[in-house]
């Protein structure tokens, strides 16, 4: 079953995994999941295959590493600052 997740839902999705987990196992688990970003969509399994770390002890570790491979457009308008105004 193909699923869709928003970036702010990723923590709950990662909590469903059994830890420790390898990046390959996480990628396999989410291979049919579309991650909906602020500007477009990406396959979550493909993003997880790009991770530099091979093993994760917690969902927080996995999520932090995922943020390192997200495109700039993932969380909002490029070069825009939150909270300034």
UniProtKB/TrEMBL annotation:
Pfam families: DUF5789
Protein name, entry field: DUF2795 domain-containing protein
Superkingdom, taxonomy of origin: Archaea
């Amino acid at each position: 079953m193909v699923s869709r997740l928003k970036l702010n839902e990723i923590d709950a999705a990662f909590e469903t995994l059994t830890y420790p987990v390898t990046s390959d196992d996480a990628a396999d688990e989410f291979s049919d999941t579309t991650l909906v970003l602020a500007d477009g969509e990406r396959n979550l399994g493909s993003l997880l295959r790009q991770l530099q770390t091979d093993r994760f002890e917690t969902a927080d570790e996995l999520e932090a590493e995922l943020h390192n491979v997200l495109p700039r457009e993932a969380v909002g308008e490029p070069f825009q600052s939150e909270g300034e105004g």
